[in-house]
Design goal:
5 strands; alpha+beta; 135 residues; 18% helix; Thiol Ester Dehydrase, Chain A; 5-stranded antiparallel beta sheet
Length: 135
Amino acid sequence: MGKNNENQEELPQGELIVRTLTMPGDTNPNGDIFGGWVLSQMDIAGAIYSGKRVRGRTVTVGMESMKFHKPVNVGDVLCCYCDTIKEGRTSLTIKIQVWVVRMFEQKRIKVTEGLFSYVAVDEKKRPIPIDTHIK
């Protein structure tokens, strides 16, 4: 997606993988959505995206970076977008952006982003070449 040329507004990059409503049970003691919950949604999105790419099982092996830009509020619609940044023989590095639509609003706001790495594995959880799964 990238930037919109008309007004240079930043737009989500990649494929929309997870879209969910934030709930009161997902908050920290300050009433904001707990960062760990957001991180778990990102990892779920990355797992779905990487599994779809390799047509098989993947495991999370790391996060190279993560940056929170804005808080996530109860009632926000949280959207995780995934895009492949790097593909190796057995691994994928995925940029995951999280955007929200605030309650009763329409504009998307980028709240966090990070780079996550996944490895294709066999049934014994051993790394295998990505193309092994693709038939």
